[in-house]
Design brief:
With 126 residues, the protein is α+β, with helices and mostly antiparallel strands. It has 2 helices and 6 strands. The chain has one domain: RutC-like (60s Ribosomal Protein L30, Chain: A, 2-Layer Sandwich). The model has no long low-confidence stretch (mean pLDDT 96).
C-alpha cells in the first residue's frame, strides 16, 4: 500500500506531485531543490544549495520516521557539471559513514533557477 508523505519542515511541492511516497519498506523522495522552507528563498551557490537540498530530504524522511542513514540511492541533478566538486564537498558532510549509491546527471535547467536538485530512495529496515 502506498502512503503520501508531506511535511511543513520542507518546501511544498512546486507542482502536482508529493514530497514523498511510502510504498512498503521503500520511501521515494521527490527531488528537492535548495529552498529554505522558512523563507522560501533558494540558497546562493551550488554548495549551499546541496546542503539545503539534503536538509530538505532529511525533513521529509523524518516525517516517515527515517533518517539520512536509511537512504540507499540518490540522484543528483546539476545545471553545471563544473559544480560537481562543490556538490561532493557538501554531500560528504551530510552523508557520512556508508553513503548511499548515487548518480549525478547534468541537465539544462531546474525549477526556480536552482543549480542542484537531489532525489532519494530510502529503505525502512524492520
Amino acid at each position: 500500500m502506498k502512503k503520501i508523505i508531506a511535511t511543513d519542515c520542507a518546501p511544498p511541492a512546486v507542482g502536482p506531485y508529493s514530497q514523498a511516497i511510502s510504498a512498503g519498506d521503500l520511501v521515494f523522495c521527490s527531488g528537492q531543490i535548495g529552498i529554505d522552507p522558512l523563507t522560501g528563498r533558494i540558497a546562493a551557490g551550488a554548495r549551499e544549495q546541496t546542503t539545503q537540498c539534503i536538509m530538505n530530504l532529511r525533513a521529509v524522511l523524518e516525517a516517515t520516521g527515517l533518517s539520512l542513514m536509511d537512504v540507499v540511492k540518490t540522484t543528483v541533478f546539476l545545471t553545471d557539471i563544473n559544480d560537481f566538486a562543490e556538490v561532493n564537498a557538501a554531500y560528504a558532510v551530510l552523508f557520512t559513514g556508508e553513503p548511499p549509491a548515487r548518480s549525478a546527471v547534468a541537465v539544462t535547467s531546474l525549477p526556480k533557477g536552482a543549480r542542484v536538485e537531489i532525489e532519494a530512495i530510502a529503505l525502512r529496515c524492520s
